[in-house]
Amino acid sequence: MLATIRLTSGLVLFAYVGTHLINHSWGLASMEALNIGRDIFVTVWRSWPGTILLYGALLTHFILILWSLYKRRSFRMRIWEAVQILLGLAIPFLLAEHVLGTRGLNATLGVIDDYIYEILVLWVYAPEKGILQTVLLVTAWLHGCVGLHFWLRLKPWYRACSPYLFAFAIVLPVTAIFGFVAAGREIKVLAENAVWLEEMTLHINWPDESAVVWVGRWKVVVWQICGGMLALVAAARIVRWAIERRHGIVRLTYPGGRVTQITAGITVLEASREAGIPHASVCGGRGRCSTCRIRLGEGREHVAPANADELKVLKRVGVPEHVRLACQLRPTKDLEVIPLLPPNATPKDAHSKPAHLQGAEREVAILFADIRKFTQFSENKLPYDVVFVLNRYFRAMGEAVNATGGELDKFIGDGVMALFGTNTTPEEGCRRALEAARLMSIALDDLNHSLRADLDEPLRIGIGIHLGTVIVGEMGFSNAVSFTAIGDAVNTASRLEQATKEYICQLIVSEDICQRAGVDLSNFPAHEIAIRGRNQAVKIRCIEKASD
Ligand code: FES
Question: Of 83, 283, 416, 492, which residue is most buried, by most CB within 10 angstroms?
């Protein structure tokens, strides 16, 4: 909830700053365009709804930044986070004088704070204030851009659009500065004309010395309020720290037996950072990306349930039980935690994945295919020819698997492993695996035909298919992560594929496959085959040619 409010208030402020910059950039056209733009700007932002929206968002956003500073247990953070927080905190201090000198004087003394007034003040009479205002606008813009970037980078479409958005983020403030400079030069020339200046002073209802003092006094008040709030946060942190020290220490155990001690109430992500344990956190601990997720081990019964915001994110990515966000979980008792993503997780990892990719038990049909006598073939060929033939073969086999809705598990040497039924019923998986074998056989015939000039003899393959319960999921490390399956059934399927050499046939399927697929293969020879590690022999059917 708080994250949503912070985001919404940030978006309102970003819209305000963005429209302000657009207005500035109209100065490149003319002074008149600049003031027309200002009229529109003022109509929106100085209306009652605009005023409530703008100042409500400003106050809310500032308070929520202070709240996040209070909640944060550790100031170890990434550089972009630190930059964003510092820019955000600087804004009220930079903004106070500008708001009081324009809208404040307009409301209290009826000063016409149009662009002629602003440029006379910021460019002609006090250029140092003009520089400060430019710094303010760019600061606010950058703060918003950084926040927006780390929110949008979790969206699937953002990657494609980011170059354009990045260009816009640079071009807008630059054109705004140029627009301001162009208007400044124009007004400076006009201001040398005493008659024009006199006219403008009357038109603007130029504020006198007492108004300047008024602005200065209220600026100090605003600074004191903001500074006081920051001091309050610091004091609250010290009090909390003292209380928590009295309440004791919590031990967090990480994989590999690494243990870190933390004060109760600190988040697991902060604990990881404090202890120097690399931990993924694409959104910087804001509870949006889910990349910090951890599985809870021993001690999980003492953990408080997730709040609504955390539950929403966990539901979005479809995590199994006992998985929580490290950036939201604050253990109060000893706890074992297992980070689920590598520290270099990317925004892609924040998107929801089917449950079976995250680790699940499934009854699936496993297919292995391998080229017969390929070692012999490769010894007599140039490396280029071997790679060429292999790639053609992999493509043909891969297309057969894809066409039947299977999951290509891996290519190992000259072998192929594929899974069927990860997203369907086991029965459907069996039927699809058999169909894939048939298509592979046909594809191999086509391949042999098209490569007949390159091959001394046609390629031959052996295919083994078996049904069994395995653990499926994405496994591996770093860039070598892939979807795969592990379990006895995988070894059995591989053994059936090897047995095609003994039984001199192209395809061997276990009886389980035939029964569950509902196909009658009783015309084909039946055998029983012993599998190492299994007590019972596996009943099989041997099919000379899978396309039959
Ligand atoms: S770091 Fe993004 S949800 Fe925890």
Answer: 416
